[in-house]
Design brief:
Layout (H helix, E strand, L loop, with lengths): L1 E5 L2 E3 L5 E8 L5 E9 L6 E6 L5 E3 L7 E6 L4 E6 L8 E9 L4 E3 L3 E5 L2
Length: 115
């Protein structure tokens, strides 16, 4: 499974971005997908996850601002980020877990929230 993330960039506080992650390869084997992020000097943290059937989970600080969604037909997962804050600045990574438990990571996309 290969994951290609896109959609990051520079945005002002209060702005919005939508991240996309396209999966290719053995896509039939993918179960859960997720977005992680790593801010400078901080540990990698789970932002949001979604199961194949659409059940979602969010980290506390992004609840109500971020929305994860998934298009199984297009093998793509999205992260809509609204009301962005400077503390959301990080490299965002797409993550997938297959039915056999194998984990795959995308290359990361930079999100910078700054005025």
């Amino acid at each position: 499974v290969q994951l290609q993330a896109s959609g990051g960039g520079l945005v002002q506080p209060g702005g919005s971005l939508r991240l996309s992650c396209a999966a290719s390869g053995s896509i039939f084997a993918i179960n859960d997908m997720a977005w992680y992020r790593q801010a400078p000097g901080k540990q990698l943290e789970l932002v949001s996850s979604i199961t194949r059937s659409g059940d979602t989970n969010y980290e506390g600080s992004v609840k109500g601002r971020f929305t994860i969604s998934r298009n199984n037909a297009e093998n793509t997962v999205y992260l809509r980020m609204n009301s962005l804050k400077p503390e959301d600045t990080a490299v965002y990574y797409c993550h997938a877990v297959t039915r056999t438990g194998l984990q795959h990571w995308g290359q990361g996309t930079q999100v910078t929230v700054s005025s």
